[in-house]
Amino acid sequence: MIISIDFDDTFTRSPQAFTEVIQTLRDYGYFIICTSSRVDNRRNRLQLKEALPHDIDIFLTGGQAKRDFLEQKGYLVDIWVDDLPQDIVHKKIWRNKPK
């Protein structure tokens, strides 16, 4: 089973709690990934990699609908944890355009 956890305003609201949840779910055999609408660049990748638990796969969609983005890469997510569920199925509408 694949579980996708959003980064901004989801994982970042309680990093310690989410880190513990991720480890517990992994112990039970779940595959955990992080999917963010952020633009895929070196700065964003490094920031997420430093904050997230070791060896978690990171996907940066650049605003593309998360479900479509991951399906194109062969991932069918079973459970989504996201503060903006509309970003899972719709293209991101940026409040402030990313640089």
Task: Describe, in short, the structure shown.
The chain is of the alpha/beta class.
Q: Uncertain runs with pLDDT below 50, 5 residues or more?
A: none
Roughly what percent helix?
25-40%
Q: Multimeric state of these chains?
A: single chain
Beta strand %: 15-25%
Largest sheet, described in full? 4 strands, parallel
Q: Number of DSSP helices?
A: 4
Order of helices and strands: EHEHEHEH
Q: What's the structural domain tally?
A: 1
Distance between the termini: 34 Å
**From the helix content, strand content and strand pairing, which structural class follows?**
alpha/beta
Looking at the structure, what is the overall shape?
globular
Cα-atom Rg, whole angstroms? 13 Å
Average pLDDT level: 94
Strand segment tally = 4
Strand order of the largest sheet: 3-2-1-4
Description of the structure:
The chain is an alpha/beta fold. The protein has one domain. It is 34% helix and 17% strand. It has four helices and four strands, in the order βαβαβαβα. It has a four-stranded parallel β-sheet. The longest helix has 13 residues, at 15-27. The radius of gyration is 13 Å and the shape is globular. The mean pLDDT is 94.
Task: List its salient traits.
4-stranded parallel sheet, 4 helices, single chain, alpha/beta, 99 residues
